[in-house]
Amino acid sequence: MSVEMMSLALSTLLLLLLVLIAASLHIQQAGFKAVMGNREAVAEPSGIAGRARRAHANLLENLLPFAVAVLMAQALGVSSSYTVAGAWLFLGGRVAHGVFYLLGVTVLRTLAFFTGLAGIALILVPLLFR
């Protein structure tokens, strides 16, 4: 498996981990029965549970363009120092983003977010300028 595809797989595992964290924290706040129901009368999670939910949603939004870039590189047979560095930057940035989001560290969270975006851009460079 290429580094880029491995990074995509690990990013997907991170997404699953974040949803498990968000769900378990929401259950702690609202109770198992309330969260497992239709949740029409359950308050939105707050504090760390809310941050976990938002970290998950943010990764979900950013995973799509990353996956498209990685799968395009794979389909075109492109793997270079740019695509490898971009894949690691995305994964590292997203892990850091999740940790900083959960801890409520805003400035570093934003830097980690942009690190992930830079990773996507690095993957696209050799695809667009071949």
From TrEMBL:
A Pfam family this chain is assigned to: MAPEG
Highest taxon, organism lineage: Bacteria
Keywords: Membrane, Transmembrane, Transmembrane helix
Coiled coil regions, renumbered to chain: none
Primary location group: membrane
Entry GO CC: membrane
Ranges annotated as spanning the membrane: 67-91, 98-129
Localization per record: Membrane
Name the record gives this protein: MAPEG family protein
Annotated source species: Gallaecimonas xiamenensis 3-C-1
